Amino acid sequence: MLQNKKVLLYEIVGTIFIIFLGSALHFTYEMSGKLPIVGAFSAVNESVWEHLKLVFFPSLMWLLIEYLPLRKQTHNYFTAKMLGTYLMVIIIPIVFYSYTAFSGKSIFAVDISTFMVAVVIGQILSYKLLTHRQLNQNFNKIAVVAIIVLAIAFMVFTFYPPQLGIFRDSVTGKYGIT
Fold first, then answer.
1. Mind listing the pLDDT tens digit for each residue in 39-94?
2. Considering 2, 32, 34, 118, which has the largest number of Cβ atoms within 10 A of its Cβ?
3. Cα 129–41–173 angle (5° rounding)?
4. Cα separation of 105 and 75, whole Å?
5. Structural domain spans, the chain
6. How far from chain centre, in Å, is Cα 39?
């Protein structure tokens, strides 16, 4: 029971960390003078895809931070973190495209709320899996690959985005790093 409280505390702190760092990453590319290396991890435009980096990279950083203190006290570590992170990345565009289909426009308060709710839901899933019975260790191996694949996709598509709506900057109409 004490271990579950420690895991819960880490996931609560992680939620706050992800929300604050994700919010900061919205501005770091511009503040860096548009350094491409910063753009690989920060939003480089106002596309939905670039905004997903605001939840992915802080989640990845939190995964690395909490790994050492939690690795022996949890189960399914990488599976839990991957599924929690992927859920965050999935919730945001689903909510965004659903509400904008009805409203016809993006609403800043809804976007911010969606980001925060997605983080909370992802962290809850992560906690549930971290404290769940041990799953097959092959799931953790697959999860590590899935995390790496998504990280690479975010970086590659920053510089070479497909000409699809999710990659289109809603302000300039351009794609990728500018």
1. 999 999 999 999 999 999 999 999 999 999 998 888 899 999 999 999 999 999 99
2. 118
3. 115
4. 42
5. 2-167
6. 15
Q: What is the 3-state secondary structure (H, E, C) of 49-67?
A: HHHHHHHHHHHHHHHHHHH
Q: What type of residue is 101? A: A
Q: Which of 48, 60, 17 is nearest to 152 (CA)?
A: 60
- For residue 44, give the amino acid letter: V
CB-based contacts of 117, cutoff 8 Å, min separation 6: 91
Question: Residue 144: exposed, middle, or buried by beta-carbon count in 10 A (0-12, 13-18, 19+)?
Answer: middle
Contact in structure between 113 and 177 (CB atoms under 8 Å): no
What residues have CB less than 8 Å from 14, skipping those under 6 apart?
62, 66, 123, 126
CA distance 94 to 11: 24
Using H for helix, E for strand and C for coil, what is the string for 77-123? Answer: HHHHHHHHHHHHHHHHHHHHHHHHHHHCCCCHHHHHHHHHHHHHHHH
- Three-state DSSP at 175 gives strand
CA angle centred on 78, ends 58 and 70, rounded to 5°: 80
Q: Are 55 and 18 in contact (CB under 8 A)?
A: yes
pLDDT of residue 2: 52
